[in-house]
Amino acid sequence: MDAGCPIGEVNTGGGLGVRFRPTDRPLDLEAWAAVLGQHLGPLDIVVGTEPGEFLAKECAVHLAEVVSVEDRDGTTFVGLDTGWNVMNEHFVYKIPFYPILCRAADAEPVANVTVSGHINEGNDLFAEDHPMPEVEEGDIVAIPNVGSYNASMVSVHCLRPEPSSVFFTDRL
Prior knowledge:
Blueprint: E1 9-14, H1 29-40, E2 46-50, H2 53-56, E3 61-72, E4 75-80, H3 89-93, E5 100-101, E6 111-116, E7 125-132, E8 140-144
Parallel strand pairs: 1-2, 4-6
Antiparallel strand pairs: 3-4, 3-8, 5-8, 6-7
């Protein structure tokens, strides 16, 4: 500003994060805002932020049925009736998914498994070496934090259909 280049707005960017694993700490929004206020407040400017995932990621959960549980060379694979074509953030960006066994969501894990999709490609994996309770065919697995970019990146790869969605408009 002192150099004759007035600043009217500072855009802090985007990508305010969310927790991916239960052990992750959530974003402390008040502390984040306090840091911005401390450093940018005295400048009397507009501060813009694209919150991205912070608003959208936690608003969706993908449910999938377990269609196979099998051991291959010492690794237990839990196969789902869904694939990377409908949830490809892990496939494309290596963003971690934390699958949860619905019938035993708070049960202690008994083994580490690899959770895979149904596209039959090596990278069609949702979680590797992932701690889970005993899983059986027919179980339902929930994969949280899929409310941001996954729906916009769906493809019909291998003729797999788009997933259906259920919206709860009374919970806004």
